[in-house]
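#struct-pred
JK: can someone run the complex with beta-D-glucopyranose? inputs below
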Amino acid sequence: MFSDNRSVFRLLTGSILFAGLLAFFCWYSPCSHAMSVEEEAAYIVSQMTLEEKIGVLVGDGRYVPDFEKNTNDAGQGMIIEDMRSQVIIPRLPRLRTTAMSDGPAGLNREAKKDGEENFEYTTAFPTGTCLAASWNMELVKRIGDAFGNEVREYGYELILAPGVNLHRNPNDGRVFEYYSEDPLLSGKSAAAMVQGMQQHGIGATLKHFMAHNQQANRHHFNAVISQRALRELYLRSFEIAVREGHPKSIMTSYNRMNGLYTDENVELLQLLTRQEWGFDGFYITDFDGKGSALGKVRAGINLLMSGSPEEFDELLTAVKNQKLDEKLLDERLTKYIEFKLSCPYALGEEISANPDLEAHAALAREAAAEGLVLLKNDNSCLPLEKAERVALFGKTAYSLIPYGTGSGEVRSHKRSLSMHDGMKELGFQLVEGMDKDYLDYVEKIKRENKVPDYFNNPKMRADNGIVGDQAPKHFKGRLVAFSRERVLSREEVEGYAGRSDVAVICFGRSSGENYENGYLPITDIERTLLETVCDVYHSAGKKVVVVLNVSGVWETASWSDLPDAILMAWLPGQEGGGAIADVLSGKANPSGKLPDTIPVKYDDLPSAPYYPGTPKEEPLNSLYNEGIYVGYRYFNTFDVPVAYAFGHGLSYTTFEYSDLKGDKEIFDGSITFSVKVTNTGDRAGKEAVQLYLTAPMDKLEKPEQELKGFAKTQLLQPGESETLQFVLDGRALASYWSGISAWVADAGVYVVSVGASSRDIRQTKTFQVPDGLVVEKTHDILFPDYLLNELSRNRKAF
Ligand code: BGC
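RT: done, structure tokens with the ligand placed:
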């Protein structure tokens, strides 16, 4: 049969080779269950050369020899758009680049280019602060779910969100990306967001770990924080998010903390997060951060972004010089590859590229409406009657600011519904022709493309490469927000007043990464507009409403007496104008409450004397001398007057609190409180109920009150009640005693206060802890490298 032995040999070897290849392919195919993700990741790493390993660890593949990325880098801070599902090393086809994108308010792809067809639009959801203001964690989880669905359906695997840093100071341009001044509200919001997102198999990234509370010298400043303030506040929000949300990734911050860059801090990345909190995901650095690549890998970083040739060389030399054990490098890389292999694409799942954007827009509107906070509503000025003719003042009423600038933008959303359009759609009678006047003004700003006042100073000009008076290209989204308000004469205001029954004025402010621009004061033009409008309308017996389309806490005390109502609308996402219209009309009953205290003036803030550190322009050290007294913890302990208290927010109905009960009087590891909330008004509404604890001070001093639980009722009809429950465990009672590195609950009487805000307590109860408890021992880590002089109840810091 066979012509010669060679043919037999060939046939035999051919069959064996074929069988071998088949067996290998079956075992090594994407759908194979022969290997666990961990085994497969280890196998892949075992097949890689040193250069390949470093090339993936640094920049996710871009420095792998011969790798040609099929993307145009969009410059600094770039996200790798078209590296979706790209094979890095042909002989290891299962090792692909990770498709990642920003950011906290929605999948932030590049904006649609002129003439581009079939563009994949994404939804701009309400920003973090607005979501936290809803106090509705179920709703935040639904947003996470819709957001994660877009991430997944467009073939992305890692979303660089949510942001979990505390609001220490409103100047920080990034506050809108984060949630609150309170760690419980921040941590729970982030956990809900992560849970919602990760239901889709993709990875969420908590950022910016740690103490990234300012933008001044953001790549280098050293946040100096006591161990106690860290544990109780700044770490606490991340701890809750890690323990309850189980994020697949954490992004370290640019800055230093207590002396070390956060991405080089082994105590932070290993002892605390992995050992104490059980974090099992991977660490990614913030993009183009400073510090040493070697330090990062040694401390625990699994992916250095964006990565640079210098970092590649540094690691290669370090391995060759035995400064870095290749085994450690393998370990870091394996963890990251495990993530890649557990992503939907690697698991062989299809993508639709067709998420339900309409449903997501409707959800974005619902969530924004629930996050709006009615600060003031004299004589039930709101809701407006449909019959009332409305004059809409302020450029941002016609050009909504949906989100801030920088990576927190959502450049790929389809539309941005302005307040004007939202009100029009709901059938409000808006003064005819007024929209044209304002839209012309908005167009003029865009056409003239002048550098906005705020950026017109030597530093900003240099930072943004501004030459002459023309705004650079990247200012597109900043032009209207940062340009000056339209100037109106009294006669013009009178003209509008003659044709309307009520004036609604919108003031807008954007802010963003790299800038200390979160708290830009009301301008003279805005103040004059407000004063004139109030004077003209009030003297005719007409009402004035102010809407704030701002990124966070804003100064209100100097003007809040003037209008009849003030609605805080934050940066509410693409459907914001509709949500504002819903609340103004009463279609939605406001139920948002402040996630931050609004101080009377900036200087009242406990961080004001130390922020953003010294020297002020380019701070090296930022001393957190206010210690544990951040936000209401400060204002309510030291009896400092505020403009609006933490947790404050009005409704069009009223709620009564009753029957506050504890299930026991002596704490034995856990205690449950319940309270009945009844809608006593004449409209359906929801109420965000807050539980504060006042703990005895035996070993440690403590803030007067701390938020330890919150819940939101369902939509209660007039007369309807709901009983809410709050469970307090040992950690809820405990404070961090750095002297013994432990969470400790002092013996004594604890007062539980349940209320509608931190300064509107409706019911109180007490319980006892007979003997002091050491609730949890921790590592003694993260000691400050500078002498702090923290604020104390017994003495003011200097
Ligand atoms: C920001 C990150 C962002 C990254 C990528 C950095 O400048 O700090 O939040 O995820 O850029 O865009």
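RT: quick notes.
Residues 77, 79, 102, 160, 207, 286-287, 407, 513 surround beta-D-glucopyranose (CB under 6 Å).
Confidence is low (pLDDT under 50) at residues 1-27, 72-82.
JK: thanks, will look after standup
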